[in-house]
Amino acid sequence: MKIRTATPADADEMVQVRTASWRAAYAGLVDADVLAGLPEEASERYVRHLAQKRPLELALVAEKGPYVIGFAVFAWDRDEAAEEDAGPGVPGEVLSIYVHPDHWSRGAGRALMNEGVRWLTEEGLTPVRVWMMEGSEVSRRFYERYGFAADGARKTVELGGASFPCARLTLQKDAAAA
């Protein structure tokens, strides 16, 4: 498996990974019609996003052979600072991390997270945080195994006309090294 920086050419495979991951992890939490419509809404957005190459943002893919099996995006915590104020001292955030369900529990997620957390730390974007949809046991287990813990912050996100409660988790100091 290889971890590398994502490019716009990876967008279609990233969408396939995201779609499969969402359908497996959020079945029963998110309406099936919303899950079925993911590729249409996501592909163009990912291509546009990757083409921007914004400062203080890192998009990675995990490849196995010629295929993208996972991806992650890391940046500054958008709830803490605007882009022009982002920099050392502002918390970092895992904006997204998805691995195709056929490759769950085989190290791709941890490898992506290791590289992203290393980068965030080097950029001075600490502590590292992630928002997780409540009720997703797959997500909760992954983040807790990595060393994240709920910090009490909560928000609601809208998706497909429905509201979903989310909890923020913060990486515990030196947990990723364990």
Structure annotation, total helices: 5
Give the SSE order as H and E letters.
EHHHEEEHEHEE
Q: Using the coordinates shown, work out and report the CATH topology.
A: Aminopeptidase
In whole angstroms, the N-to-C terminal distance is 21 Å
CATH architecture level-2 label: 3-Layer(aba) Sandwich
Instruction: Give the % helix.
Output: 25-40%
Derived from helix and strand composition plus strand pairing, the structural class reads alpha+beta
Low-confidence stretches: none
Q: Specify Rg, calculated over alpha carbons.
A: 15 Å
Average residue-wise pLDDT: 88
Keywords: Acyltransferase, Transferase
Protein name: L-amino acid N-acyltransferase YncA
GO molecular function, one term: acyltransferase activity, transferring groups other than amino-acyl groups
Organism: Glycomyces sambucus
Please provide a written account of the structure:
This is L-amino acid N-acyltransferase YncA. It comes from Glycomyces sambucus. It holds the Pfam family Acetyltransf_1. Residues 1-176 form the N-acetyltransferase domain. Keywords: Acyltransferase, Transferase. With 178 residues, the chain is of the alpha+beta class. The chain has a single domain, classed as Aminopeptidase, CATH 3.40.630.30. It has five helices and seven strands, in the order βαααβββαβαββ. A seven-stranded mixed beta sheet has the order 1-2-3-4-5-7-6.
